[in-house]
Amino acid sequence: MMKMLPFLQSGPIGIRSGSEGCIGPNRQFENPSASVAEQVPACSESSVDEIWSKNQEKMSERPAGACRASRASSITSNESCISAGDSPEKGRGITGILRSAFKKIKKTKPPSVKQVMVLLGEQKLCDATQHLIALEKSLSSKSEEGLNASQEDIESVYEVLKHKVFSVLKDSMLLAKTNPDLLQQAVEALKEQEREDQNYMSENPPDQNMQFRPRKWKELWMATVKESVEARMKDTSRTPINENLSAVGQNLLHMGKTMKEDLTVVVKYIKELYPPEFNVFSIYAEFYHDYFASQAKKNAESHLEDKDIYLLLSWVHKIYPKDMRKDHALAKELDKVKLGSLLPSSLSKELEKKYLDSEEVTVKNSLSKCLDKEIQRWKEDKEPEKLNGHFQSELLGIFVIQSIYSGQKRAQDISSAVGEELSQRLLKELPAFLRSYRDAFEDFKEKSKKHTHYKPILIANINNCWNFREYTEKNMAEKDDGKADILSTLGDIENSGFDVLLQQLFAQLKPMYKKFTENKWDSSNEIMNEIIKTTSKHFSDFRTLRDPFYHAIVEKIHTRLVKEYIVRLLKRKVSLKTPAQQQTLAQQISKNAADLEAFCMSNGSQATWLNSVLPKLAEIIRLQDLGAIKIEVATLATTYPDIRKRHLEAFLHIKANLSRSEQKSILGYLADNKASTPPRAMLFSNINVS
């Protein structure tokens, strides 16, 4: 009987001195929330039956309610806990003790492969995982022969478990909403395996009997995530077809939509199932980004249509980095990952150049076609359409500016840098187009004078210039050389049109003004009334000009009426010796000036700077004091600094009572008060004195 003692000491009912690491009869579970498999240390010299019997003895000493009953970990239920009545009987001798011991071993036998398969059939993936881990550990101290046979069975079950777990994980996007409990089961199984791998690797040295550890399920999980991501990104059938998109555009739409929707699911439903060290969102985001970027690069390196180049650049610069972040929760996570651009910088620049070159040619061709159509409309001699009472050329007034603006807007929608580059290119094209327009306008003006709608077409073309002026002022800086070129060309077109429109009026007025000198200002009021009446007949035609150009042409008329009056005063045809005669002429000039001012102002003239010149000249004629005359001359020269000695000398011919020395004194005073001539005050410089 004594020979049995070594067996008793090392058997399932003996307590070995070298097994303190095993669960003893008086030891409590350190972490009730962890799986039983985690709490059963591997005792290198203990049998599987010893480990399981001691666990069950410990469970029998605890109240039934202390047994674990959680969903995620249920290796031992309350029913399997050992009751007090199952303890070995005392006083039965060695035979009784052995019989009781073997009875206990039978009762505490670890879960079988069959039980695990039942759990798998019930989709209890976490429970099945914990049972398998326990079975795996229970074999660590068996003989090599037993280990191989039993391990082979366990590995077969492991293959089934792995297939089920990773099939679930592969469908995470779908199950996160439709069956979150099953997905959580799979994640818990993954976590159990990863935890067990870490426990195994922390042993020193690792248990050689655990030859299938580490199982590296985390690596399998990452490979599964990658496979799932690529499958979803390739499955374009899930995205409705947009008939306006090419195959490339449809694929970009699908990938962007899939990535955004799936990452939103990861943030809201999947990430919370995993521990932080899995970096779940980062893993998913990087796999989605890598696949998207690889496809974008593949597209960029292929031959793309212009519209697909635009779409791809839009995704690279705007949609991908910005629209993807419209969801606040998703944006917060994406900012942590910092995925980068869909395309390498060099490839992106190459694509941008292709787009800019193509867009520049497209807009240039559009402008050329537009001008050709406009010229054709002129030749058809049709009255232009009116917009708000103003003759307007629809093509040039709208289409040209819209073509340039649309090109700039499309480029701006890609990125501010691309938009700025195209704007500079197109603004260089505009001066060239306007020069072609001016040349075509001049050709029409000279060759089409007999057209029925000659003047309305001229007016429509003048009105077109306003659109270009407004666009240029708004979009070009003052220092831009192209701006001055554009405004100068527009001025040429406008003034050329004004000259034709005013030609007939000015021809009619010329003989009327001659009557002032011919009659020596007798009946000057009647002459002025005739001039006003003739001029007023033309204003109705001019009102079809847009307001800025109407005011401009009225100012030209106002200036011409004042200028022609001054020309008559400088003709040296009138010389008055007495102050009374000079007083009478001054009154007539003042009256004519008042009538002229009233007429021009009532018809919309804004050239108020012209209103004082004739009254000042009248005052110089009226004054007899030399000092007062000099003051008035100084005031005149200040207001109209382009007046010169030749002008004043011819005008003073009217005051025949001035001596030569007095005239010289007055002229000398003018020379001392010269000033630079503002562009708007060009009045006397356009008057030639014979």
Written overview of the protein:
The protein has 4 domains: 110-140 and 148-215, no CATH class; 242-343; 360-496; 520-670, Tetracycline Repressor, domain 2, CATH 1.10.357. A hairpin with a 2-residue loop joins β1 (385-387) and β2. The model is unreliable at 1-92, 101-108 and 143-149 (pLDDT under 50). α5 packs parallel to α7. With 690 residues, the chain is an all-alpha fold. The chain contains 27 helices and 2 strands.
Sketch the major β-sheet. 2 strands, antiparallel
Tell me the distance between the termini.
156 Å
Order of helices and strands: HHHHHHHHHHHHHHHEEHHHHHHHHHHHH
Uncertain residue segments: 1-92, 101-108, 143-149
The CATH class of the largest domain: Mainly Alpha
> Strands of the largest sheet, in order across it?
1-2
CATH architecture term of the largest domain? Orthogonal Bundle
User: Mean pLDDT across all residues, rounded?
Assistant: 82
The tally of domains stands at 4
**Overall morphology:** rod-shaped
Helix fraction by DSSP (H/I, runs of at least 4)? 55-70%
Number of helices, where a helix is a run of at least 4 consecutive DSSP H or I residues: 27
| Strand elements, count | 2
Report the structural category: mainly alpha
Query: What is the alpha-carbon Rg in Å?
Result: 51 Å
Strand content: under 5%
CATH level 3 topology of the largest domain: Tetracycline Repressor, domain 2
Pfam family, one: Sec6
Protein name: Tumor necrosis factor alpha-induced protein 2
GO molecular function, one term: SNARE binding
InterPro entries: EXOC3/Sec6 (IPR010326), EXOC3/Sec6_C (IPR042532)
